[in-house]
Amino acid sequence: MRLKTSLLKEPKHKELVSCVGWTTADELYSCSEDHQILKWNLLTNETGLVVRLPDDMYPVDLHWFPKTVGAKKQTQPEISALTSTDGKFHLVSKMGRIEKSVEAHKGAVLAGRWNYDGTALITAGEDGQIKIWSKSGMLRSTLVSQGCPVYSVAWGPDSDRILYTSRRQLIIKPLQPSTKVIQWKAHDGLVLKVDWNSVNDLILSGGEDCKYKVWDSFGRLLHSSTSQDYPITSLSWAPDGEVFAVGSFNTLRLCDKTGWSYALEKPNTGSVFNLAWSADGTQLAGACGNGHVIFAHLVEQHWEWKNFSITLTKRRTMQVRNVQNDAVDVLEFRDRVIKASLAFDHLVVATSLQCYVYNSRNWNTPLIFDLKEGTVSLMLQAEKHFLLVDGSGLYTFSYEGRLISSPKFLGMRADVLNAQAVSLSNDTIAIRDKSDEKVILFFDAMTGKPLSDGKPLTHKLEVLEIALDQCGPSTERKIALIDKNRDLYLTSVHHLGKEPKICKIGSMVHSMAWNDSANILCGIQDIQFTVWYYPSVVFTDKELLPRTIYLKDGSEFSHAPHILSYVGTKVTLRQGDGSLVYSSVPLYSTLLHEYSTSARWEDALRLCRFAKDQSLWACLAGMAMANRDLNTAEMAYAAIGELPRVQYINFIKEQPSKESSLAHMLMFSGHVQEAEATLLQSGLIYQAIQVNIDLFNWNRALELAVKHKTHVDTVLAYRGKFLQTFGRKETNKRFLQYSEGVEVDWEKIQAKIEMELFKEREKAANTSVRGSVASRHL
Q: GO cellular component annotations, sorted alphabetically (predicted)?
């Protein structure tokens, strides 16, 4: 990716350009010390004078009123806040009329910013004060008063905090008066510019020490650039938070959100004092010290999937290369490309007005449909459909271009959603709630309605990243999540009224991705590349989990690699320096998933015998138990030397009825309550009591016996034997109470137990006879 810049031969402004601001994706306003406001139309390449300002008014900063105001949406911003050196800010209309001028500060007003919903304006002055104003220009409060100028200010993502400069320091101040202020030394020289992105919650700063830095919202340094040739005079996040631009003397740089540089341009501009991105994130404008306004747009973005490599060569042109046969196709678009995604045999391209869907088998005839809004900020794909996110909502489309659903929820802010906070599968959409980051909301992809009776999943800590698995039936859909402690958890999307079971499967996990064709999860875990061949084993036999993991030394990757995709056996990673590296995962695990899904257990056994890999045997054991194929499970557990489990499987096989077998399989997986419920539902009271006795759940065993008025003596007998073995006396009041009136006779108890087992065998035999007779009649 790089910036393609354009400059006019002669500057339109006669003096330094101090600020620029976009009204639409193709219309820009620029303000200069020559007292002129110019309007630039990028479609017609026309530049016109909007207004000539008074001779004593020198503009400093310009910010247009935001497009989205609460739930209402404006077609375009109609008013801007223009700050000047005379201590005033001015509300200026699109026609250039000054609607209102407000005395705000002593000395120059160095910055003025609207908050995200347009309800407040913040100004920062040379006098060291920061003030908040209403939309109409009425003073609400003086938030900060310090002894040095405030050169730059930015709103937090929720408009409840501000970030500002104080000499070499950065300060985050909440609007609530009693809340803690975060303050830290950021640079070795004056901090000149800051920006705070609402999507990724990351902070940018640039200073006179010639460095730009990336911070998180707690003030922790994520990236520091090397010292540049000149001080950093401007910087700005792209709206989607994926890239940012940095301006300096005769310098324009494009960087990834993690800090590494995509491209460096050296235009003849003088210092770039202000940078602004268009709302769709494809174009950049800079206010230059020599009177020029520099324009730049993104080109050479790159997408890969299997044997296809796609490059955005021009604003409206893509080149598709098939690396297997070197065939090249050129795709032309009517409007400029804003977003694109390549996966699952389809290329989806969003332009400023339309969406194009290409099938990888035919690049000549795309399916085209119109978009409501031309600012698509996020695009996700699944096998059967894809998801578009723009400023007004989320939309699921089929690859035939049909709108399937549009999920909505209370307090939804589509403009701050990113790929870490949204996940898509064939049947489910998962969204992390921005208002409470511990909460994950689930929606049916086909209807847009909430799943699980609208009850969301609530984790104990804030969630950083979520990912839905891509394969298998919707009833078995799983979601992986990384929380604030960098722990990796797995849970089911569907809970059927039960409390969700959230199982930890890894720690110190920085990045993760599901495979596109099997439910295999890979991640960067501390300094290792880890692949969980069968993460769902944690719900069947959690002790098998460590044995189903494939580990690879991460030393071949540089600092902080990030997983981009996991397709087939190839994992694509982006290193901390921006370079792409690839890692391969053995194919056997994918084949094993395929055999398990289609119940080809003989083929699965053959594969494990051929591969001679203990982790595959462990996966097969878990898969067979999950699918209740006891013979395969027995062989797999025997192969990894788990003899106690082999014995228990044989015990399950010997059970006289299906209900008992099912209950003991649930016991095997640790689902004690479900096992007990299965037995009670089938009328096997003694077996339910015996399960609790075997687990030493004495109180529950006695409770069941008393409730069903049977086998109270059995519970008391086993309890007495247990205490006798350990040389203890009975202290439990309930057992003392019932033991007074009950006589324990082991011979009678044994006879009762044998009778219970005989009844169960007889019932099972009758059931099977009735089943065979019914099948013959059919």
A: centrosome; cilium; intraciliary transport particle B
711 to each of 22, 272, 714, 752, 757, how far by Cα in Å?
81, 87, 5, 8, 14
The number of CA neighbours under 13 Å toward the Cβ of 451 is 21
Number of C-beta neighbours around residue 204 at 10 A: 26
pLDDT at 71: 41
d(CA 552, CA 556): 9
Contact 681/704 with Cβ under 8 angstroms? no
For 457, phi and psi rounded to 5 degrees? -90, 125
CB atoms under 10 Å from CB of 546, counted, come to 10
The CA distance from 276 to 38, in Å, is 15
For 287-340, write each residue's pLDDT tens digit.
Answer: 999 999 999 998 889 999 989 999 999 989 999 999 999 899 999 999 889 999
Across the beta sheet with 463-468, the strand order is 463-468, 478-483, 488-492, 503-506
Question: Residue 560 is encoded by which pair of tokens?
Answer: 């902080």
DSSP 54: P
* Non-local CB neighbours of 744 within 8 Å, separated by 6+ positions: 713, 716, 717, 720
3-state helix, strand and coil shares in percent for the chain, rounded to the nearest 5: 20, 40, 40
Q: Report whether 67 contacts 82 (CB < 8 A).
A: no
Residue type, 197: N
CA gap 620, 461 in Å, rounded: 33
Which DSSP symbol is given to 662?
H
Contacts of 726 by beta carbon, 8 Å cutoff, 6+ apart: none
Q: Mapped to the 3 state alphabet, what secondary structure does 168-235 carry?
A: CEEEEEECCCCCCCEEEECCCCCEEEEEECCCCCCEEEEECCCCEEEECCCCCEEEECCCCCCCCCEE
What pLDDT, in 10s, does the model give residues 548-578?
999 988 777 777 788 999 999 999 998 888 8
Q: What is the dihedral of CA 534, 535, 539, 544, to 10 degrees?
A: 70
Assign 121 a pLDDT band (cuts: 50, 70, 90).
very high
CA angle 634, 638, 639 (to 5 degrees): 120
Q: How many residues does the chain have?
A: 778
What pLDDT is stored for residue 532 in this prediction?
95
* 765 or 38, which is more confident: 38
Residue 717's SS3 state is helix
Identity of residue 284: L
- For CA atoms 239, 241, 245, 246, the dihedral sign is positive
β-pair partners for 650: none
Domain 16-67+77-298 in CATH 1.20.1560.10? The answer is no
Q: Which of 507, 458, 515 is nearest to 482 (CA)?
A: 507
Name the token pair of 401: 């271009």
What distance in Å separates the CA atoms of residue 261 and residue 259, rounded to the nearest whole number? 6
Helices 630-639/643-653 angle, 10° precision: 160
From CA 415, how far away is CA 68, in angstroms rounded?
Answer: 9
Q: How many CB atoms lie within 10 A of CB 436?
A: 13
Considering only residues 652 and 274, tell me which one the structure prediction assigns the higher pLDDT: 274
CB neighbours (10 Å) of residue 507? 11
738/716 Cα distance (integer angstroms): 8
Class of the 299-371 domain? Answer: mainly beta
Instruction: Sketch the domain layout of the chain as residue ranges.
Output: 16-67+77-298, 299-371, 661-775
Give the 3-state secondary structure of residue 419. coil
Output the pLDDT for position 617: 95
Of the two residues 74 and 203, the one the predictor is more confident about is 203
Residue 415, classed as helix, strand or coil, is: helix
Burial class (CB in 10 A: 0-12, 13-18, 19+), 602: exposed
Rounded distance between C-alpha atoms, residue 667 and residue 678, angstroms: 11
Instruction: Classify residue 496 as exposed, middle or buried by CB count within 10 Å of its CB (0-12, 13-18, 19+).
Output: exposed
Cα–Cα distance measured from residue 655 to residue 662, given in angstroms and rounded to the nearest whole number: 9
Hey, is 477 helix, strand or coil?
Answer: coil
